[in-house]
Write a structure and sequence with these properties.
The strands form 2 sheets. Strands 1, 2, 3, 4, 7, 8, 9, 10, 11, 12, 13, 14 and 15 form a 13-stranded mixed β-sheet that branches. By secondary structure, the protein is of the alpha+beta class. It is built from 12 helices and 15 strands. About 35% of the residues lie in helices and about 30% in strands. The radius of gyration is 21 Å and the shape is globular. A hairpin with a 2-residue loop joins β10 and β11. It has 2 domains: about 160 residues, Aminopeptidase; about 180 residues, Aminopeptidase (3-Layer(aba) Sandwich).
C-alpha cells in the first residue's frame, strides 16, 4: 500500500532532521533499459557511532526486483559510499535509524501491513543472504485479539491490588501542553530502551519531528501516562493503524490521493491499532508496573479497536514478551536486521546503471 504522501521523501531532503543532527543519507536508484529496478540509501549515522564507539555504516529505503545482480549493484554502490567515510560494516535496513521503520520482514507476507512496520516481498532475505549478509537481530510482534478475550481474571486482580497499593493512575496526553508532554515521553523512552542493542538516544528535535507526522493520526485517548502518587511512572503509546486508510487510496490517482485520505479519515473507522511504546521509569522498575501498564493499555485499546499488534520487541526482551502473552498476545510476525563487513570493491559486469538519486530528483 502507498505510504502517506511525503513521508519517505522528507528523510531524503538535505535539511531533514536526521541529516541536520545525526549524519548523511545518500540515495541511489538502479535502472535497466531506462526503467527503475531498485533503490537503496547509504546512511552514515554519526550519532550511532559516537554513542557506541564503532564504525558501522547503514543501509535503508531498500527496494529491488527479484534479481541478485541488481541487488549486488545496489549494495556495492552503497558500500562504496560508506567505505569512503571510513566505515567497516554495513547494517540494516534502517529507514533511516533504529528509532524509525527498520528490518526485513521474514514471514507473514500475506498479512496487511501495520503502521510503522515495513512490508517487503518474501525474496528480500534470500537476496541479502546471497550477498553474504548475516542476520544480526530478530524483532518480534505479537497479535492481540482485543475483541475475543479479556485478560485472565487472576492477572486483573493482581494489577488492581498493585494499583491500590502503589497509588497508581493513568491520564491521557494533554495536547495543549504537547512539548512538555513529549519531553516526558522522550525521557521515559530513552531510559527504557538504553539497554537495547544498537539503541541511540532520541533527541527532542527528533521526537518533535515524529510528533508532527503522528499528530494527524494519533488518538489522544490512547496516549497514556502512568503515574504513582502523581509522579510519572511510565508511558504507553498506542497508534491507530492508519494503513487501513492508506489501503483505501491505493488505486486513487496520485493527484487525488491526499483529499481522498482526508475524506476517509472522517468517514471510516480504523479497527486495528499498534501498541508501539511501553516504558517504565527506572526507579519504578521491578515493582510490577510493567504488568499494570500493559493491562491499562489493553483495557483502553479494547474500547476503540478490535485487534492490536504489540511491538516490535527485541528477542531479548523476555519479560515484556511474557507479560504480553499473559493478556492474550499471540506470536505473529518477525523482522530481521542484517549485517556484513564492507569488503573491498568488486567489479562484476554491471547489470544495471546505479546513479545518485540527487542527480535525478524526479
Amino acid at each position: 500500500m502507498p505510504p502517506f504522501p511525503g513521508s519517505t521523501a522528507k528523510f531524503l531532503k538535505p535539511d531533514s532532521t536526521f541529516q541536520k543532527r545525526h549524519g548523511a543519507i545518500t540515495p541511489f536508484i538502479a535502472e535497466r533499459d531506462g526503467q527503475p529496478v531498485g533503490r537503496i540509501a547509504a546512511i552514515v549515522n554519526r550519532s550511532h557511532n559516537r554513542h557506541h564507539g564503532d564504525r558501522t555504516g547503514f543501509f535503508g529505503f531498500f527496494d529491488c526486483i527479484d534479481d541478485p545482480a541488481v541487488a549486488a549493484a545496489l549494495f556495492e554502490k552503497a558500500a562504496e559510499a560508506l567505505r569512503a567515510e571510513g566505515l567497516e560494516t554495513i547494517r540494516g535496513p534502517y529507514n533511516p535509524s533504529i528509532n524509525d521503520d527498520c528490518g526485513i520482514l521474514m514471514d507473514g507476507f500475506e498479512k496487511h501491513p501495520m503502521v510503522g512496520l515495513p512490508w517487503n516481498p518474501s525474496y528480500y532475505s534470500a537476496l541479502l543472504a546471497g550477498l553474504g549478509f548475516e542476520k544480526k537481530r530478530t524483532l518480534y510482534v505479537l497479535n492481540l485479539p482485543l475483541h475475543r478475550q479479556d485478560p485472565p481474571a487472576r492477572f486483573t486482580r493482581i494489577v488492581e491490588r498493585l494499583e491500590k497499593r502503589a497509588n497508581l493512575s493513568t491520564r491521557t496526553l494533554d495536547m495543549s501542553r504537547l512539548r512538555d508532554e513529549l519531553a516526558i515521553v522522550r525521557e521515559v523512552y530513552n531510559a527504557t530502551l538504553e539497554r537495547n542493542w544498537g539503541f541511540v538516544p532520541i533527541g527532542m528535535e527528533d521526537i518533535l519531528d515524529s510528533a508532527a507526522d503522528l499528530r494527524a493520526i494519533a488518538d489522544p485517548r490512547l496516549l497514556l501516562f502512568g503515574e504513582s502518587a502523581g509522579r510519572t511512572a511510565g508511558v504507553a503509546i498506542t497508534l491507530p493503524n492508519f494503513n487501513e486508510i492508506l489501503a483505501g487510496v491505493k488505486n486513487t490517482p496520485h493527484w487525488l490521493r491526499l483529499p481522498h485520505i482526508f475524506l476517509l479519515m472522517k468517514t471510516r473507522r480504523i479497527r486495528t491499532c499498534r501498541q508501539t511504546v511501553l516504558g517504565v521509569v527506572p526507579e519504578f522498575r521491578d515493582r510490577g508496573l510493567h504488568a499494570w501498564l500493559v493491562h491499562a493499555q489493553f483495557t483502553e485499546a479494547k474500547k476503540h479497536h478490535t485487534d492490536a499488534t504489540l511491538g516490535w520487541l527485541e528477542d531479548t526482551n523476555a519479560e515484556i514478551i511474557d507479560i504480553c502473552k499473559l493478556v492474550g498476545g499471540e506470536p505473529d510476525r518477525e523482522w530481521a536486521i542484517f549485517e556484513k563487513p564492507i569488503a573491498g570493491p568488486s567489479d562484476p559486469p554491471p547489470p544495471a546503471s546505479v546513479h545518485s538519486a540527487w542527480a535525478n530528483p524526479q
